[in-house]
Specification:
Elements (H helix, E strand, L loop, with lengths): L15 E4 L1 E2 L5 E3 L14 E4 L4 H11 L2 H10 L1 E2 L5 E2 L2 H5 L8 H17 L4 H12 L5 H21 L2
Antiparallel strand pairs: 1-3, 1-4, 2-6, 5-6
Helix pairs in contact: 1-4, 2-6, 4-5, 5-6
Length: 161
């Protein structure tokens, strides 16, 4: 019948999700899936899957970085009331620098800590940002500029309320 849910498939059970409408900076959330207790995420979220747990943790860290948050502020759609609409197509446009194996290991560790704490604490965000901006010659300068730009875009959105 039209009112019945279809059988759940892998696409209904993501490993990561992100609000499609954000009132503050975008945040990626870890979804602890298990066969015993699957967690279904509805269409109000951009959902993502991974085959390897390592890559899921790496992307959890990356998607919570200042790099990603600022980029999504720039490519997302500002809506009435100051909300930011983030679609899967926006997330697919994100570009990241190439990381060494040790940087990827560090990002994985950060992602695991996000999943364990169910939060991105300021000290952990700083640690993630240090890794993400490390490949650049002027990484610290670029990081500060992206933080300033993100704060500016957030203020501009809030003025639209």
């Amino acid at each position: 019948f039209w009112y019945m849910l279809p059988p759940f498939t892998r696409r209904h059970l993501p490993d990561l999700c992100m609000n499609r409408v954000c009132s503050s900076a975008c945040e990626c959330i870890y979804v602890p899936q298990s066969e015993d207790v699957p967690i279904v995420i509805d269409a109000n979220f951009v959902t993502m899957w991974g085959e390897e747990q390592r890559n899921i943790y790496i992307f959890l860290a990356l998607l919570n970085s200042t790099w990603s948050r600022c980029s999504l502020e720039l490519i997302g759609t500002v809506m009435g009331g100051g909300a930011l609409k983030v679609e899967a197509s926006h997330v697919k446009k994100l570009l990241f620098p190439r990381f060494s194996d040790s940087q990827a290991d560090s990002l994985e560790d950060c992602g695991r800590r996000i999943a364990d704490n169910s939060a991105v604490l300021p000290a952990l965000l700083n640690e993630i940002d240090e890794i993400v901006f490390e490949p650049f010659e002027d990484g610290d300068k670029i990081r500060l500029e992206m933080k300033k730009l993100m704060e500016l875009k957030l203020r501009e959105r809030r003025k639209n309320k």
